Amino acid sequence: MNPREYKEELLKALYAPYKNCQECHLGFTGRKNVVFGEGNADAELLFIGEGPGRDEDEQGRPFVGRSGQLLNRVLAQVGIERSEVFITNIVKCRPPNNRAPSPQEAATCMGLFLYNQIKIIRPKIICPLGSIALNNLLGKPCSITKLRGTNLEWEGFTIIPTYHPAYILRNQSQALSWLEDFKTLKNALLSVQSR
Ligand code: SF4
Questions:
Q1: Among 46, 78, 155, 159, which residue's beta carbon has the most beta carbons within 10 A?
Q2: What are the pLDDT digits (tens) for 50-80?
Q3: What is the CATH number of domain 3-189?
């Protein structure tokens, strides 16, 4: 078994008991699927969004709606294969009306899944998409506008945050800055791959 297969097995074992998770309020609000995440279990780059939207809840996969299509396009533009990265969210169930997850929902879900996903995957770079993902990961309020595209350190991991694609859909004027952040991510990836 190679490292990727081994990590896939660990992730499967992590998810198996929680296919109908009701460990926080979001398990009781009509979600259709628990969206654990997908991609390369041995990825060097991990993306973390906020939570599943309607399309993601329907399909049980992260970033498959309009935001996901935009993410796919920018990844292709900078030469990152979606299949080579891992993509997940702070909370794995859709918050009603796409509201932000509460601090308690985020803490419960991260404790169950995200921290364990990070421990299993051991990515070299983590990219929180948007302020909700960044704030919850770092455990403090931060300005995504100030910190986007910069290198931060958290628990020994390199963190390079950027805007959530849903924000770019609403604010096209930031699309070039967003592309620059993905070029920064690509360069950081090339740098860790050359070590
Ligand atoms: S959001 Fe996370 S903790 Fe809450 S019910 Fe869904 S999977 Fe469980």
A1: 46
A2: 999 999 999 999 999 999 999 999 999 999 9
A3: 3.40.470.10
